[in-house]
Amino acid sequence: MSDRDENDADPRAAQVRYDQARYVENGEYEPLLSEKDQTRVEIGGGDGDDGDGSGDDDSPLPDDLTRDSLELPELSEPELARHYTRLSQMIYGIDSGPYPLGSCTMKYNPKFTEDVAALPKAAVHPDRSERSTQGSLELMYRLQDYLGRIGGMDAVTLQPPAGAAGEFVGIRVAAAYHEHNGEGHRDEVIIPESAHGTNFASAALGGYDVVSLPSDDGGRVDLEALEAALSENTAALMLTNPNTLGLFERDIEEIAEMVHDVGGLLYYDGANLNALLGRARPGDMGFDVMHYNVHKTFATPHGGGGPGAGPVGVVDELAPFLPAPGVRENGESESEPGYELFDPEHTIGKVHGYQGNWLVLVKAFAYIARLGDEGLTDASATAVLNANYLASRIEYEVPYEPFHHEFVASAGEQDAADVAKRMLDYGVHPPTTKWPEIVPEALMTEPTEVEGKGTLDRLAAAFNAVAGEDDETLADAPERTTARRIDQTNAARSPRLSWQALGSDEE
Amino acid sequence: MHGTHTTGSPYAPHTEEDRSAMLEAVGAESVDDLFDIPDAVEFDGEFGIDVRSERETRQLVRTILGRNDDLTELLGRGHYGYYVPSLVDHLADRSEFLTSYTQYQPEISQGFLQALFEYQSLLVELTGLEVANCSMYDAATALGEAATLAERVRDTSGHRVLVPDLLLEGWRSTLENYVAGTDLEVEEYPTDDANVDLAALEELVDEECVMVYAENPTVRGAIEEGLESVGDLASDHDALFVLGSDPIALSLLQRPADVGADVVVGDASVLGLPTSYGMGLGLFATTDDYLRQVPGRLVGASEDATDRRAYTLTLQTREQHIRRERATSNICTNQAWVALRTAMHAAYLGPNGMVDLAECGVTRAEDLAERLDDIVGVKAPVHDRHHLREFVARVDQPAPAIASDLEKRGFAVHVVDEHELQVCVAGVPDERIDPFVAAFREVIR
Q: Do the chains contact at B301 and A496, CB–CB below 8 Å?
């Protein structure tokens, strides 16, 4: 382990000779488009009679139906190309370096999936006939089938456009199921305190009261607390497994039995599914409904905040309540199967105007088809190996184990947010910080399977370099990024949310 | 060996030596030892999904999608095949844009934050409202979020949400799901000649209404002529006036702020995306009054330690990861990259290009309607209104059969009812218009 000793001896070894792009023009980082040009177009002068307008302007509409003017930047294509190229150089992506953001599963995004999503035949109008869109329907049918097998679920909808939208579908499906069975009085959803914030918000949006569940000393579901929380009012328990500490809920069978005994449903949050591919399936563990985060587990790019997709899988009993329409084989021909849309018998209706984020689904399908059984199973195994290896190399304490694909270290006396800022100076993306709150000054770390040993060593060296630094250095960080530490308090105190607001503010 | 992976994730760079060294470092014999899964729930089966090479996978997807017919789409209703300039594809596909996460670390995300700030600014100019978020999923979910916002900001205990009878079924259904956990009830008001029936709406609006929704243009492509009156009716009863539109329509039509709109929703992906089988970009703008009740992400300007302007996600205490069950919305991952594409496309067009594109939508729709109207057995447009991009044509013969015959000749149109078809010109190349009119002439015989 001589290389480790070297890293420990010289924290600078963790540094990458890489500064983020920083353009300064007129005292600002890259100017806004509006600072490069503002062009006002006057509209009107039309009387509504085509070609009969007077003066220079012959608007085809009468003045009272139009706005007076439109003022926006008017720039040439080369000017725009440079503007957006510069902006892109001021962003850190998974192609820039490691991105161990816990619970976000930031994997490398294969390039070929962009090409298949850009195929001209992927771009069809959502209102086209089923007959003329057999390709789109077949791809959806096959993706539904893949996801069902991977999750151990009987039926899948692809409609939810993100993980949180999938949670909301799960909640609505649970509500419809209970209502259908004359159990509409169930008004509580139980959620562990360490769960993702979306769980709470999705349950509340569905009209449920949230019952918060504490963890036991080992960081898992406290069975006694669960027993106390469960009642005839329980609609569902929402669970992440492994949980946000990376720990597998070993009592899952008992948990499922307890929830089912009171007539509740068990919901699986797919955010951590990357830990389980080919090792365990939510359906086999007793979960009734789950969502898949395709931009996590199935490596579709996150796009700086979306689009994602959050397909939902359910067991047979819940299939009649899924959103409409689903896709199925129409059974008309054995030699060349046809596909059709259908409304499940007791459908909750729609949760998106059309079929969700279709192009993302195409990428997810291609990713799964590329990896197959072996690739998916290996992804999980390697992700778990990587997390364990990285944890073994860092000097920060990791209080809960055995973890799987992610672990939560504690920054101890240091401020986790400052640690994150300082890590930026070492050319790596920091972990998720200050969450889950079970671990003080949490550094929630998920390297995923795509980082090799060399990168993990470099990441560990960055962790360790920061661990040895004083508070003042941390508070001054970052210094090698596009912008220095940003005042977030002021941003919220006096919100300036557009260049229009900026103009009035700075005049 | 590169390119010949047959086992394992092709995107994990480990060699066998690496794996051994790493296992040794963590003190495990094999990776299996690291999994803490009870036997009873361990999966020992197979998915039955074959491993494929990249080339084989591309071919598979190409073959499957190849079953989609090539049609000229004269379909609209929120999704248009406007030409997307190459600039958008090439620059939005730069991998820093594509492969970054939500901007939780603003110091290394300035480029994306600035692009989203510019997107918000575009919507502020288009709507005249002060606040725009940097995206919802699509128009239908944005409408759902508008309703839950109306419920939160309305002082009284009203529960009625009024929507036009023309509202698309998918949007109506999505709205119903969004309000299912509230006391809100969705009710329809009638339309008259594809515009709001103002007299009927006046009868229906009362103090129990929290929201009145209208669209410009309407689903039938008709430009709304009574928006100010709708705004007045809503504000007279302390209800929010929510207006549905899109960036191209907003470049030309009445400014929402000028007709009293409190919220603007719609699909902004008319710019930046092809017709992606329904994938969209929810537009959401509102007034300063409701700033702290806005759903979703907001990018704000601030300063960094050198006092230079810098951007950051802001007002996050509204959001689910902080406020949990008391958040303004459950949205987390949104459509940031699509918003980027829309902003790029708008910047490419500039204000002149956007107004031109909108005006073309008026004149080309008018021209095509005239040409169809010349065909015996066809009346177009059915509605005596100005139209943007699309219009309804009445046909003497059964409309579904005509649509089906048109499809056989390579053209897709909407069926409105037994004797009405809806036709859209947006994104249809000029050279496809003559063949379409010829095909229409043939199938109407």
A: yes
Check CB contact under 8 Å for B168 and A110.
Answer: no
CB B49 to CB A149 under 8 A? yes
> Scanning the structure block, which residue is given the tokens 């109407």?
B444
3-state secondary structure of B211: strand
**Residue A255 identity (one-letter amino acid):** I
Determine, for residues B280 and A354 on separate chains, whether the beta-carbon distance falls below 8 Å: yes
CA distance A500 to A336: 57
Q: Is B292 on the interface with A (CB under 8 A)?
A: no
Please give the pLDDT value at position B322. Answer: 82
Distance CA A193, CA A504 (A): 43
Please provide the average confidence, as pLDDT, over all residues in chain A: 93
- A208-236 mean pLDDT: 96
For A216-228, how does the pLDDT look when each residue is reduced to its tens digit (9 = 90+)?
Answer: 999 999 999 999 9
**From B9, B108, B344, residue closest to A481, measured CB to CB:** B108
Alpha carbons within 13 angstroms on the beta-carbon side of residue A77 total: 7
pTM for this structure?
Answer: 0.96
Confidence check: pLDDT of A6 > 80: no
Instruction: Identify whether the C-beta of residue A171 lies closer than 8 Å to the C-beta of residue A200.
Output: no
Tokens 């698309």 correspond to: B168
SS3 B265: strand
> Which B residues 88-147 touch A at CB under 8 Å?
89, 91-112, 114-118, 120-122, 124-126, 130-132, 134-135, 137-141
| Contact with chain A for residue B9, Cβ under 8 A | yes
Given an 8 Å threshold on Cβ–Cβ distance, is A67 in contact with B132? Answer: no
Does residue B415 sit at the A interface (CB-CB below 8 Å)? no
Fill in the DSSP letter of residue B209. Answer: E
Q: How far is A398 from chain B (nearest CA, A)?
A: 14
Which residues of A fall within a CB distance of 8 Å from B415? none
Asked if B86 reaches chain A (Cβ–Cβ under 8 Å), the answer is no
Q: Is residue B336 within 8 angstroms of chain A, CB to CB? A: yes
Rounded to whole angstroms, the Cα distance separating B191 from B176 reads 20
Tell me the residue type at B442.
E
Residue B47 sits at the chain A interface (C-beta within 8 Å)? yes
CB contact (8 A) between residue A304 and residue B37:
no
- Tell me the C-alpha distance between B35 and B51, whole Å: 24
**Residue numbers in B near A80 (CB within 8 A):** 87, 91, 344, 347-348
Confidence of residue A22 (pLDDT cuts 50, 70, 90): confident
**Contact of A449 with B71, CB cutoff 8 Å:** no
One-letter amino acid of B54:
E
Residue A285 has pLDDT above 60, yes or no: yes
Q: Is B71 on the interface with A (CB under 8 A)?
A: yes
What CA–CA distance (Å, rounded) separates B177 from A349?
Answer: 7
Contacts of A254 in chain B (CB under 8 A): none
pLDDT at B69: 97
Strand pairing of B72-73 and B131-132?
A: unpaired
Contact status of B307 with chain A (Cβ, < 8 Å): no
Q: Which residue, B135, B143, B146, is CA-closest to B343?
A: B135
Greatest mean pLDDT among A106-110, A433-437, B3-7 lies in: A106-110
Whether the complex's predicted ipTM surpasses the cut of 0.95: yes
Name the residue among B32, B321, B229, B265 with its Cα closest to residue B132: B265
Strands A234-239 and A209-213: unpaired
Give the model's pLDDT for residue A16: 53
Structure-token pair, residue B422: 């809806």
Nearest to A128 among B73, B181, B331 (CB): B73
Q: Is the pLDDT of residue A49 over 80?
A: no
Q: Do B177 and A404 touch (CB under 8 A)?
A: no
Asked if the model's pLDDT at residue B259 lies above 90, the reply is yes
Select from B252, B212, B218, B216 the least CA-distant residue to B235: B212
